[in-house]
Amino acid sequence: MKPKRIIIIGAVASGTKTAAKARREDPDAEITLITEEAEISYASCGTPYFISDIIKDGNSLIIRDPDYFRKMLNVDVLTEHRAESIDPETKRVEITNLKTNQSLILGYDQLVLAVGASPNTPDFEGVGYGNILTLHNIPSAMHIKSLIRQKRVKNALIVGGGFIALEMAESLIAQGINTRLIIRRDQILSNFDKDIALLVQNYIKAKGVQVLEEDEVGEFKADADGNVANVITKKQTVPAEFVLLATSIRPNIQLAKKAGIEIGPTGAIHVNEKLETNIPDIYAAGDCVETTHLITGKSVWIPLATTSNKHGRVAGINITGGNDTFPGILGTFVVKVFDWTIAKTGLSEKEAVKNGFETETIIVPANDKAHYYPGSKRIIIKLIAEKRSGLLLGAEIVGDGVVDKRIDVLASALAGKATVEQLSKYDLSYAPPYSSPMDPVITAANVLLNKLDGKTSSLSSIETKVKLDKMDDFILLDVRSKPEHDSGHIEGCLHIPLNELRSRIDELDKSKEIVTYCGVGLRASHAHRILKNEGFEDTKFLEGSMAVWPYKIEK
Amino acid sequence: MKPKRIIIIGAVASGTKTAAKARREDPDAEITLITEEAEISYASCGTPYFISDIIKDGNSLIIRDPDYFRKMLNVDVLTEHRAESIDPETKRVEITNLKTNQSLILGYDQLVLAVGASPNTPDFEGVGYGNILTLHNIPSAMHIKSLIRQKRVKNALIVGGGFIALEMAESLIAQGINTRLIIRRDQILSNFDKDIALLVQNYIKAKGVQVLEEDEVGEFKADADGNVANVITKKQTVPAEFVLLATSIRPNIQLAKKAGIEIGPTGAIHVNEKLETNIPDIYAAGDCVETTHLITGKSVWIPLATTSNKHGRVAGINITGGNDTFPGILGTFVVKVFDWTIAKTGLSEKEAVKNGFETETIIVPANDKAHYYPGSKRIIIKLIAEKRSGLLLGAEIVGDGVVDKRIDVLASALAGKATVEQLSKYDLSYAPPYSSPMDPVITAANVLLNKLDGKTSSLSSIETKVKLDKMDDFILLDVRSKPEHDSGHIEGCLHIPLNELRSRIDELDKSKEIVTYCGVGLRASHAHRILKNEGFEDTKFLEGSMAVWPYKIEK
Fold this sequence. Notes:
- The structure is a homodimer.
- By secondary structure, chain A is an alpha/beta fold.
- Chain A is built from 16 helices and 30 strands.
- In chain A, strand 29, helix 16 (about 520-535) and strand 30 form a beta-alpha-beta unit.
């Protein structure tokens, strides 16, 4: 039998993974990797750490070089070669050698498009000036690092509020650069709920990042050398000798489109579970394809390295005659920003509502380890569930404690279609250096269960702030001790410590709505249940209470 | 309506949790907590860290004091009171006040037995001498700590090889004490598979713990003051001015037995999912009860703080008229020993086999973070699956990297009855400080999937050692580079680097069994597949290879 000819276009994550897996499955196939870039198999996710010098050596971001693929895996690697077009009829790819400008044509039996995504460059006036950059590969990271090393950047502006924006904000602040971040809306991390995003926003501000909220770049102004010097925004003018454009990215679909490959509703390449496109023997994998969201069942385009690597395995198996499927994603995400970890899996509350779910949610602050164990830190968990069924829909977790473990437990729970009730009984590990006997995830599930069971009602910080701003006629009841109350409280609250609540209950008007609050929500919830049992009909507790209150505190 | 009278006997984890939950559910109930001890609601799991001075203040181990229960929760707390007997007919408990020796009788509507477990004291000769102790509560921890502080302990002997034994070994070594650990068998951690336990055993030996294997205490010898001075074992005599008995514990069932409460096949109190005993209105919770193993469906007694706390919630809800259930456990377990974390969930391979499962297993070493991110460390994962269905049955993970996150993901996967295939597609979080794009759990699942799919075959270190010891006629093939081979290899191996394997394949005898090995198993598995494809019929790779080889290395 003639060996299979496999061509893989793109050689970062999914492309190289596909090649390596295909080789293990089929020792005889002729495998060719084609990429416009000079490097292959590099870790884009590591670039912010290279820029901040946490990773000293840029080469360590290169996982495998072309030589490894040639010698160890017998894979032909064409770097600095651009695939110009694909002819599905004759099963041939037209390629340009970018070093020599020569054309070559290669035939394939199976083709994999692993062409990734690219940053969008918004068409701001002056966007072509020097030192207005994007971060998307090793050369762009080198460029930014050398720019910073020249020490001529005093002020930087980051356009966007997503995870690359946040990682780079940390990186720039760490290097003593006056760093601004400009966002169109009033919150960073637009795929997070506002109550959680505001906590992160307050945190990065405390770390020195200036956040220009509800603002937009109007025009860039350059110095005499043609390098960016100032930015005129909708609201102000700020100095910036370096601008990072981190607004959004788009899938690279030009080549696919030209070949007649179906583009899905999200604007990325559409594939089935086997990663086949609509054209026989053409597969697509990684950042250029859309996939199914496991909670909504809808097509989504959420490019992540984790998906790309899994895709590589699936594509590698299928193009060599095997049978593997990729069921879809939860969009699980984690990012380190200064000492905080910010993570999400499944749907946010607003995404759940948008997708037609009736939701019940909770925010619970908890210690990441036994509270008495040195180094125990706080994390803040938001759980989102379907009201009717109690099915878990998603979670967001932030804080300076161990967040990633909990988001992975929740991602696993979502994969198993767990209800909040089932989650509350999970047998998670415990010893004092790792958790509490009731892991924070389980505590959060229990608190949400009380709501789902109709035993408690609560409000989020944002809902409470809206009531305060509207001057609603309600009692905001601080049930902490006097010293706690005096050290800082929400303006306009009434103060009755929890242990005096029963004896002073007559001070409260039963006809009024009462919202209780405390330090983290535990005493507030207890007070709320006491009031409910005493016949107060309209009472709620403030979720997470002072621990998650993102607004002004009165002293 | 008259308020419910609730009596809870036992006031550590499940007892206090039951009381607190019952109070939130029923504001009017008369709740009484009874305990023989002076403290309530303390964290036994923290005592080794108190002894090693990681936790300075013993009071921080007390989570809530009786005052909190009285004032904040309106729960009556009788410390230093012993429940002598229960009369289910008249629904009364006879109690002795241990301070005054007076008797009192209390009636109940609902009773909860949360009486815990106690260490077994083996009947060795001389076991009554001074400084032969167990560790089971705050006073016993105080006793041990003060003994060590007097600096008269130069040598310590720990009897047993379970997690308290290991935690205490670390604690004693940290305080400069010559520490021996004596075990009857040839492995510590008897609920772990030997291939994993041996890695931990080698590690603690490297940390200075002397492990007396396949040995037993015969007799203790005392000094002139009646304190232990020497221990005569089956094999040797060792000095010991302090002996910790950490062999085993047993559920406290005397009170239950006397009252006619059913004891289950494990020797612990039998309860249903609602935590009801066979006697109406008597519940039992925590360390004194047996529960269902979620993988085998059988009754097990695995006392853990996590279960006790969950039991407290379930019992608290049910005794106040609600309806909650506890489905069972996986026995998920984690312990820190020096810089290693040792964890398990579900069944070990030997437990799975014992329970009638035909298993397929794998051992995979992996980095806990992106390999280029500073501080990335190694963990070693063993997965156990059912061969026929591919259902995950259990996992063991050890190493100095982040182990607890992965065991919790696997515990969640087990809760969702995931197959290895499903696990391999889990959407876990990734950023360089937290994981690799393919989390170690997913990599391990993929490697096991290759075995389940019949694409690869492998041997464990122990299986390979048995073959070597039996002088089996097989080729042990080292496929690493020459420098790697020369720096240390398994005796009797043949050496052909992976990149020379194809060209030198004629050097290998096709009729022989070939076991390949490398650094961590990746190249070995690749070599194995090359050989298989070249028509070698009996080839396997050594799982985890040198990274998990617990035996002598030849240089």
